[in-house]
Amino acid sequence: MMDLRILLFFVTVPWIICETAKTNKVVPRHKGILKVDNDEEVNSGSKAVMEVKKPKKKVILSQDYDNPADKDVEIPGADPKDHEDLPTCLMCVCLTGSVYCEDVSPDMTTVPALPQETAYLYARFNKITKITNKDFANIATLKRIDLSGNLISEIEDGAFSKLSHLEELTLAGNKLVKLPMLPANLLSLDVNHNLLRTKGVKANIFKKLIKLAYLYLGDNGLEAIPPLPESLRVVHLHNNNITSLTDDTFCKGNSTHYIRHNMQEVRLDGNPLTLAQHPNSFICLRALPIGHYK
Q1: Which of 61-70, 110-119, 275-284 is predicted with the least confidence, judged by mean pLDDT?
Q2: Is the distance from CB of 167 to CB of 147 less than 8 angstroms?
Q3: What does the angle CA 234 – CA 132 – CA 156 come to, to the nearest 5 degrees?
Q4: What residue ranges in 201-274 does DSSP mark as E strands?
Q5: pTM of the complete model
Q6: For the chain, where are the E strands, in sequence order?
Q7: 279: cis peptide before it, omega within 30°?
Q8: CA 56 – CA 49 distance, rounded (Å)
Q9: Which residues contact 280 (CB under 8 A, 6 or more apart)?
C-alpha cells in the first residue's frame, strides 16, 4: 500500500506543475526582476511592457538658487563706467584720490590708466621707461606724482606742462638725460640720481617757476648751475661735475646789499669745486653751503 501511494505522488505532482506552466507566462521585468502575469494582462498591458524598453530620458535637476556664473548679474545702482577703472585698481591700490602702484608684479612698463579723480600717484620701483603726453592728459586734478626708482629715460615735452594743480614731482632714481617742460605751479622737483647734464637742462627752465621752493639735482652730471628762482628755499647740487661759480649764481654781483632771504639750504659737496675761490658767491646767503668740502 505504501509503495502505491509513493507512485501516485510522483505521477500527480509533475502533471499539476505542467498544467500550471501552460496557463501562465513568465515576463521579465526591468533590471532582472521577474514578474508573472496571466495571458490577458500581458496582451492588454503590451504598451506598458514596451515602454520599459524605451531609453531613459535625461533628467535635469533644477537648482534651488541662481548661479551667477550662468548668467550676467546686474547689480542695481551699479555704474557701467566703473569697470573702466578696474584694471588699474586691480593691479594697484586705489583710495579716494590716491593710487599706489609700487613694485607691481607682473612688471609695469607704462603709466597705467588712472581714475579721473586721481590727485596723488605713487608708481615707484617699477619698470616704466617713458612718459608720454597722453599719460596724464585727462587727469587735471593731479597734485603729486612720484615715479622714482623706474627706468625712465625719456619724457615728452608736454607730459606735465598742462597739469596746473601739480605741486610735487619726484623722478629720482631714473635714467633721464633731459628735463621736459614743467608746470608753472610746481613747488618741489626731485631729479636726484639721474643722468642729467647741463645741455639737457634748458637755460631758464627753473627761473620761470616762481613758486618752486625745493629743488633736488644731486648725483647727476651737471657741469654748471642753471639760473635759480628767487622762491627757492632748498637746492641740492651735490655729486655733480660743477667746476665753477659766479657772483650771480646765488647773489647779485652788482649789489652788496642784496640778501637772499628765502634760501635756507645749499648743497655743493662732491663737486670738483673749491669754495674758498668764490667768496663773493655766497655773500648774500644766510648760511654757507652744507656738506664736506676739500
Answers
A1: 61-70
A2: no
A3: 60
A4: 214-216, 234-236, 265-267
A5: 0.70
A6: 25-28, 34-37, 93-95, 98-100, 120-122, 130-131, 144-146, 154-155, 168-170, 188-190, 214-216, 234-236, 265-267
A7: no
A8: 14
A9: 247, 251, 253
